[in-house]
Amino acid sequence: RVEEVDAWVAEREPGTGGAIASPGDAIAPLRAALASQRASAAAALARELDTRRHERLMTSLVAFVTATEGDPGTGDGRPDRRMGDRAASSIWTAYELVRAYAPVVRWADLPTLHGLRIEAKRLRYTIEFMGPILGREQEPILKRLVALQDHLGALNDATLAVSTVRGFLGERHAALSPDERAAIVKSPADRERELGRLRRAVGRAWRPVVSATFARTLGRAVVARPTAGT
Questions:
Q1: In the prediction, which pLDDT does 70 show?
Q2: What's the alpha-carbon Rg for the chain, to the nearest Å?
């Protein structure tokens, strides 16, 4: 990302000692390429948002969230289940999909960890959506999920950054000056060290989410509703 390139340059501008040109100047071709990619992606998104397909999608989403569910009746005297009655199964199903990664997290490759991030995000959003009908125990649960999600997000960002710079070097290597090549090659090397650190620290963010304490707290959040009759 352009912001990451700017941050990398800002950390290295002082004290270059004249060994190479200013890092900002040397890495300018990479920054220009990233800025061009961003502008192209923004233009493509703007075109998509202006299509009738997107308009139909938004109309259907509004209809979905504002529709009132009919009451077909069970016909056997049993009461219909309310949202609060369905919360436990919905949340626990989402948690099961997170816990399914337990046997592989220690050795998981980066695409697998990205899949874990997606499932953690779905669990978090499920809990947040049902927040008004859950007990206050949801707060420490969400805190741990956000920590895991943020850590895996940083890991994914570092992976994409390294891949993007390596791809740029492969395509533009011959057109770069020696100073530009030296500066741009150093950028992914720094990010790869950060990538290794993040990869080794996944367990610290993961273990609290699959602990017995987390599961018990999640159970209490589901049954300890703030108001009766929800």
A1: 57
A2: 24
